[in-house]
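To: structure subgroup
Subject: Chain for Friday's discussion

All,

I'm putting the inputs and outputs inline so they're searchable in the archive.
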Amino acid sequence: MSSAVEPVSTRSSRTRRAVLDATAALMAEGGLTATTVDAIRNRSGVSKTTIYKHWPNRLCVAVDAFAERLASDASLPDTGTVRGDFREQIRRVSAYYASPVGSVFAQLLANAIQDPVASEWFQTRLLASRQRGIHQLWDRAVSRGEVRSEIDPDLALDLMFGPVMWRLVSGRRLVTADEADTIVDSVLNGLGVT
């Protein structure tokens, strides 16, 4: 009688899932401070050695768990106009940052900046796809002829989303819907977009 041996990839996948589920739950319950490697170990049943085998540090585990379990829906608005698209997107981003999950995102951002390894993980696993999405909104506006192609999209997007990020990191009240409209109109008018 032969005993079935579980393939390593299945076992590894199950271990990864347990760690990410435990980490996401801990962050949702108590934020990043509650998400220690000991707490992840206790919640997931996965040893610290195994956790460190897959992730360089707890912030990297948190970034992966956030990206896979807690990150918001990344669908993009399509209102038919550049102004409508960016107004809606800024409203969504601001509302997200005002939520409990958005608070965890801010904690991750603040901590990842101080850790070069976690900062790279944060950029590649969380920010890069979001930035590509925002660039798609801009590219759509260019293809519809609403925005001149010679306008630097990075500068325009920094101007639009900078106030939202500034308020997030400074702990101030987040951008309201009316303020989102004002920001988008001010930036697009300043760039000569009609």
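Points worth raising on Friday:
The radius of gyration is 20 Å.
The chain has a mean pLDDT of 90.

D.
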